Amino acid sequence: MKKFIDESWLVLVMGIVFAALLAGTQTSLQPRIIANEVATLNDAIAEVVPDVDKTEMIKIDGNEVYKCLDAAGQPIGWAVKAEGAGFIDKITLVAGLTLEGDKLTGIKAIKHTETPGLGNKIDTKDTQNFYPLQYEKKATERPFELVKRDPVADHEIQAITGATYSSQYVMDIVNDVITRIRPKLAEHR
Fold first, then answer.
1. From CA 109, how far away is CA 98, in angstroms rounded?
2. Contact 96/103 with Cβ under 8 angstroms?
3. 100 — phi, psi (to 5°)?
4. Residue 127 has pLDDT above 70, yes or no
5. Cα torsion angle, 60, 66, 182, 161, sign
6. Sheet architecture: strand order including 54-60
7. Which of 90, 107, 129, 177 has its CA 20 to 30 A from that of 84?
8. Backbone dihedral region of 162: left (phi > 0), alpha (psi from -120 to 50 degrees) or beta?
9. Per-residue pLDDT tens digits for 25-83
């Protein structure tokens, strides 16, 4: 027992050294992390609001809302950064809206830890997975509903096979942000 107590200082010193190294790494990389997050957000805005040249950020109900302007400085739409629960952790996405807020122009998941090969399909656009494409040009006057068959109504979104929960969480985030933000967009035009 005495030997254990005499040698336990080594574990304590190693813990302090590794904690200091981790803190130093985090501090030194923080500017790069922030720059990457800003670039990802800007790329997502450009993807969900076509022809955007610059943006102006405003806060509405705690959400970052970006007024999207064309090259002439005229408003052409909105991009809303929204966050909500996911299957594993939080999902952060950007939803694009028309200037009137009556239609979605697209969605883009920018941060998530959904299950690889299943739930992570919420952010892919390829010919075999069209999940984000389903939201494009959809009217926003009524909440979206998740279905497990081919959608027949404008407000229906087909779930990703094997990732119904992830599909539901994304739809819940989109419905929530539209419900809260859409009525207030006219004030900020």
1. 18
2. no
3. -80, -15
4. no
5. negative
6. 54-60, 63-69, 75-85, 90-98, 104-111
7. 129
8. left
9. 989 999 998 999 889 999 999 988 988 999 999 998 888 899 999 999 899 999 999 99
Token reading at 138: 């959809």
**Residues whose CB falls within 8 Å of the CB of residue 181, separated by 6 or more in sequence, listed in order:** 60, 61, 63, 65, 78, 80, 101
At residue 126, the pLDDT reads 54
Q: How far apart are CA 101 and CA 88, in angstroms?
A: 30
Q: Which two tokens stand for residue 130?
A: 């069209």
- Specify the pTM: 0.79
pLDDT at 129: 54
Q: Tell the burial category of 118 from Cβ atoms under 10 Å away from its Cβ (0-12, 13-18, 19+).
A: middle
Nearest Cα to Cα of residue 116 among 94, 95, 87? 87
Total residues found in the chain within this entry: 189
Cα angle: 126, vertex 120, 132; to 5 degrees: 45
